[in-house]
Design brief:
The structure holds two protein chains of two kinds.
Chain A (H helix, E strand, L loop, with lengths): L2 H7 L3 H5 L9 H16 L4 E9 L5 E12 L5 E10 L1 H23 L3 E6 L4 E4 L1 H7 L15 E3 L12 H7 L7 E6 L5 E6 L2 E4 L5 E10 L1 H38 L3 H24 L5 E2 H13 L6 E5 L3 E2 L1 H20 L9 E9 L6 E9 L12 H14 L2 E5 L6 E7 L18
Parallel strand pairs in A: 12-14
Antiparallel strand pairs in A: 1-2, 2-3, 4-5, 4-10, 6-7, 7-8, 8-10, 9-10, 11-13, 14-15, 15-17, 16-17
Helix pairs in contact in A: 7-8, 8-9, 8-10, 9-10, 10-11
Chain B lengths: L5 H14 L10 H10 L5 E4 L1 E2 L2 E2 L1 H9 L4 E5 L15 E3 L4 H26 L1
Parallel strand pairs in B: 1-4, 4-5
Antiparallel strand pairs in B: 2-3
């Protein structure tokens, strides 16, 4: 035993000479050394090396590397062993720290909400985190897989994408990071997740490519928002175009019957304002429905103000869909305009009663409505059919699948309208007069 | 003509009358339209793409089966219709009387050419 050996374990030569080489070994490591040494003594092996912990005199465990070589006699029998001991505590501790630090990074990656995985240069998966499993919908086997743990991959246009052609594979083959490639992963349960991948090649200290790390960002929500926005823009465009077609038609119908430009302007303005007010009421309820009472009040407001007490509106509170709301708004406007010009609302003693009720029918409830004028000038049937008359007589059937009649008894105009409220028979389900009773 | 918006229906009626066309019939619901197709004496059909919230496809199918040329009309902009009707003429609402006339006569002429085609092959 030389001085170097004593320097390592802190004992004096005398203190060690009568001890075995295993005496100070950590109990976990002693057996490994003992087994090898016994083979060396038997001549089965010529030398061995072992790393183990030994207790120094100061009571601290240190790591040492032992290289044990045999010295044999002329017959080749084991005479004694030469052991070279080296203190490797610093190296072992550094390795330990590195392992801890690597584990720390792995724990960090595992805990990240973004899907992260790594592969070697052959595309075999070497690491993946929980978020990656959630995105793929399947747990990949380490060491297997082809550049991605996804069940199936598709391009953004929906065509299949081979794993070997995904951006991770390209990043490894071309040894360059690829940013922002979109793809779609299909899970074994058939659900699809659009994502953006950010594969980056990994190199060792010497700069050699050893694999790649990939981060996948789930963009389902963004895609859904984009889709919603597209649908909204399409729907907006649809409504604007249809409204413009309605305005075009109202202008044509008004122009056909107006005798003077002033009359044309006044009638068209009235019709557009009636349409606009119905739009306002529908907008307040997200174009879901309107309250029939509000539609009636709003159409009668310009005339009821002048003729306070002349008008009574009564009926069950009822919600009507946009199509029904717009049609009734136009009908009320036409009838009220006529009443104010020629009918009951043209005289203080004239009366208008607007009433509706829900009538149970076999195919579902109907809405029955009566507009009854009285006390106005004596009424004569009109000589020609105006837009308002057509709207009642034909429009109710075309727009709402209902029926209507307009009568002109001397006592005052009477208009009766009946429309189906629920989807039934000829009424089209998707746009039926789906009304809710309040 | 299949159209579920009354104001637009009235305007198209006026346009057709001004163009000298005779209207074989109008319908504003799918079932009603199918019955109209059965009566069948139209040279050309003008179909709103969406009838009371339903696609007009069944009516278009019935018309196509009878060889009646179809012109679609829609408030949805964009690049025409999808699927089977992709190559059919589409009028984007609102449209002018000239556009209506061009679409109707174009479709009717194409329909006649289609009917003649098998004859010329046999010859």
């Amino acid at each position: 035993m030389n001085a170097g050996c004593c320097a390592i374990n802190g004992y004096a030569r005398d203190e060690l000479l009568d001890r075995t080489i295993f005496a100070e070994s950590h109990s976990n490591d002693a057996d490994r050394d003992r087994a090898q040494f016994s083979r060396q003594v038997k001549g089965e092996i010529d030398s061995y090396s072992v790393e183990k912990r030994i207790l120094t005199k100061s009571g601290r465990y240190i790591w040492v590397a032992i290289a044990s070589s045999s010295v044999r006699d002329a017959q080749g029998r084991f005479r004694y062993g030469v052991r070279v001991m080296q203190d490797i505590t610093e190296r072992i501790e550094a390795e330990e720290k590195l392992r801890e630090s690597e584990q720390g990074f792995k724990d960090l990656l595992a805990a990240l909400p973004a899907a992260v995985y790594t592969t070697d240069t052959e595309g075999r998966i070497t690491f993946y985190n929980r978020a990656a499993v959630d995105l793929w919908g399947v747990e990949p086997k380490l060491g297997s897989g082809e550049f991605s743990g996804a069940w199936k991959l598709y391009r953004p246009d929906g065509t299949p994408l081979a794993h070997a052609e995904c951006s991770m594979a390209v990043a490894i083959k071309e040894s360059r990071p690829i940013g922002g490639a979109e793809a779609i992963a299909e899970r074994p349960d058939g659900t699809r997740v659009p994502f953006i991948a950010y594969p980056t090649p990994l190199r060792d200290a010497a700069g050699t490519l050893v694999g790649a790390v990939n981060m996948l960002v789930d963009i389902s929500e963004r895609k859904q928002a984009e889709l919603r926005q597209k649908l909204m823009v399409d729907e907006l465009n649809h409504r604007v175009k249809n409204t413009l077609a309605t305005v075009q038609s109202l202008a044509c119908q008004t122009a056909r019957r107006a005798q003077t430009p002033d009359m044309f302007r006044e009638r068209l303005e009235g019709r557009l304002m009636a349409l606009s007010e119905a739009h306002d009421q529908l907008s307040r309820r997200n174009w879901d429905h309107a309250d029939l009472r509000e539609i009636a009040d709003s159409a009668l407001a310009p005339y009821a103000r002048e003729a306070a007490g002349q008008v009574t509106v009564s009926g069950d509170p009822i919600r009507v869909n946009p199509r029904t709301a717009l049609t009734f708004a136009m009908i009320f406007h036409e009838l009220a305009t006529n009443a104010a010009k020629y009918g009951a609302l043209s005289r203080p003693q004239g009366r208008l009663a607007l009433a509706w009720q829900i009538l149970p029918q076999e195919a579902g409830p109907d809405l029955h409505m009566t507009w009854r004028e009285s006390g106005g000038p004596e009424v004569a049937p009109p000589e020609r059919r105006g837009f308002g008359t057509l709207l009642v007589e034909r429009g109710v059937k075309v727009e709402l699948g209902g029926s209507a009649r307009l009568d002109f008894p001397r006592s005052g105009v009477v208009c009766e309208i009946q429309i189906p409220l629920m989807a039934a028979g000829e009424t089209e389900a998707a746009d039926a007069q789906t009304c809710e009773f309040l | 003509m299949i159209e579920d918006e009354f104001a637009v229906l009235l305007m198209i009626e006026d346009m057709l009358a001004a163009l000298g066309h005779e209207l074989a019939g109008t319908a504003s619901r799918i079932g009603e339209a199918l019955r109209l197709v059965q009566e069948g004496d139209a040279d050309v059909a003008l179909l709103d793409v969406n009838i009371a919230g339903r696609p007009v496809d069944p009516v278009a199918e019935a018309l196509a089966a009878r060889g009646v040329p179809i012109v679609f009309s829609t408030g949805y902009g964009g690049s025409g219709l999808a699927g089977r009707w992709r190559d059919y003429p589409v009028l984007q609402k609102p449209y002018r009387i000239g556009q209506l006339q061009a679409a109707l006569s174009g479709a009717a002429a194409a329909g006649v050419a289609l009917c003649r085609a098998p004859v010329s092959i046999r010859v």
